[in-house]
Structures are given as structure tokens and as C-alpha cells.
Design goal:
Helices cover 33% and strands 33% of the residues. It is built from 7 helices and 15 strands.
Length: 248
């Protein structure tokens, strides 16, 4: 394990432990919209991650869902989602995670995703294998849509929601099961682990998918990203075998 991966693992466990400790407690809301919610613990969790990582690497940059920190001119940029699945977390649904990636000169070199409720830790480094709790994982060998489980995200804007629901309706009759479970990062690790076979969404933020992309690609899967406005991306992530792109 490299020093950067070790730092990301330690930070994710610190953050995950903090979130697990507060899972059953009342949660203070900072902001709500029709389709999303921000809680105080989002900010507090990112602050814990920032404090740990910048304590080790004060000249690095932080790019997180809850803001920027560190030296934004650094070639090293930590990309953080302190709680991917905040709505799940707020409502007491134990399906959320901490996502931490490290980008160096524009390339993802470290990815860590931690699900504290299941104590499942996914890790990967550029050029290496993907791991779940220290064991090598790989995407599924399924190559037929009829055998696959597909996650379709629907986004938060009217356009992306409409597109997601359209895709859900189009694909659902061709696959074994469809899922919308509320965490893009976990969807990607589930593909990397052979649990899901594809994930599709028309508008998603980089911090949701940065670590998951590296983990999935190291597990033999594939990711197509299309940059959009406002630092958003359209994404198709899959096991590399099922013909999901043709259906889209």
C-alpha cells in the first residue's frame, strides 16, 4: 500500500467511524431542496478528512462536495465526497459511503470508498488491482443484458430526472433487475465487485464518481464520461461486457 493510499484509507475510516457513531442520532439540517438535503454532518465529516489529509500533505489541494481547501495550485488534488448518499443517511437507510480519490497532474492515482455500516472498504491504485477488504475483486463476466442488474440514476434537475426515468423504462424490460439505491459511488463499487453490471446517469458530480471510476477500471470494468456544464458529467459505467451503450 502506497503512502497516499494508506492516507486515504485512514481518512475514510476516521470519517466512516464518525458517521456510524451518529447514524441513529438526530441530524441538523443545513439546507433542503425538493430532491436533496444537506446536513451539518456533511460539513463536519469533510472537515475531519481535510484535517487528516492536510496534516500529512499541507501543500495538497482539496476538492470536495463541501468546498475547497489547501493549495489549489498543487498537482495533487484530493477529491472528496464525505457522505455519498446523504438522503439515505438522513432517513436512517444504511446505504451510504465515504469516497476519497487522489488526482495527480489530472490523472486519478488513488481511489478509496468505505461503507461504514457494512464495514466494506474498496481500494485501488492506478495500474494495480481493485480490492474489497484486502481481497482482489473483478467485475462480473455476464455479457447479456437479460442476465444483468443495472443501476439508473435520475439526477436532481428536471432534465436529468426525465432522462433517467426514460432510460429506466427503456432498459427495465431487457434486464434481470433495475436498481435506484441512492449512492453513485457504491453503485460503481458494486459493479467492480460483480454485484451490479452497469450504472447510468445523465448528470453527476466528479466527487461522486472519482474514486469509483478508478476502482471499477482496476477491476476490469469500463467507464465513459461526458463532461457537461457546471462540473457535471454524464456517465455510463459497466462491467465492460454487456451491450449497455448500444441500448442507450
Amino acid at each position: 500500500m502506497s503512502k497516499f493510499l494508506e492516507a486515504a484509507v485512514d481518512a475514510s475510516r476516521i470519517a466512516g467511524g464518525f458517521l456510524k457513531d451518529h447514524f441513529y442520532a438526530d441530524k441538523k439540517v443545513n439546507e433542503t431542496t425538493q430532491y436533496d438535503i444537506k446536513i451539518e454532518l456533511d460539513v463536519q465529516t469533510q472537515e475531519k478528512i481535510e484535517k487528516y489529509l492536510l496534516g500529512l500533505y499541507p501543500d495538497h489541494a482539496i476538492y470536495g462536495e463541501e468546498g475547497l481547501a489547501g493549495d489549489q495550485d498543487s498537482e495533487y488534488q484530493w477529491i472528496i465526497d464525505p457522505i455519498d448518499g446523504t438522503v439515505n443517511y438522513f432517513y436512517g437507510i444504511p446505504h451510504f459511503c465515504v469516497s476519497i480519490a487522489l488526482r495527480y497532474q489530472g490523472e486519478m492515482i488513488v481511489g478509496v470508498i468505505y461503507d461504514p455500516m457494512m464495514d466494506e472498504l474498496w481500494t485501488a491504485e492506478k495500474g494495480g488491482k481493485a480490492y474489497l477488504n484486502g481481497n482482489v475483486i473483478s467485475a462480473s463476466s455476464r455479457n447479456k443484458l437479460a442476465d444483468s442488474v443495472v443501476f439508473v440514476g435520475h439526477g436532481k434537475s428536471t432534465g436529468s430526472m426525465d432522462k433517467g426515468l426514460e432510460r429506466f423504462a427503456h432498459i427495465s424490460s431487457q434486464v434481470r433487475k433495475m436498481r435506484i439505491t441512492g449512492s453513485a459511488a457504491l453503485a460503481m463499487t458494486y459493479i467492480a465487485s460483480g454485484r451490479y453490471d452497469a450504472y447510468v446517469e445523465s448528470s453527476i458530480s466528479l466527487w461522486d464518481i472519482a474514486a469509483g471510476q478508478l476502482i471499477l477500471e482496476c477491476a476490469g470494468g469500463a467507464v465513459n464520461l461526458l463532461p457537461k456544464e457546471d462540473d457535471k458529467y454524464a456517465i455510463v459505467a459497466w462491467n465492460g461486457l454487456i451491450p449497455i451503450n448500444e441500448e442507450l
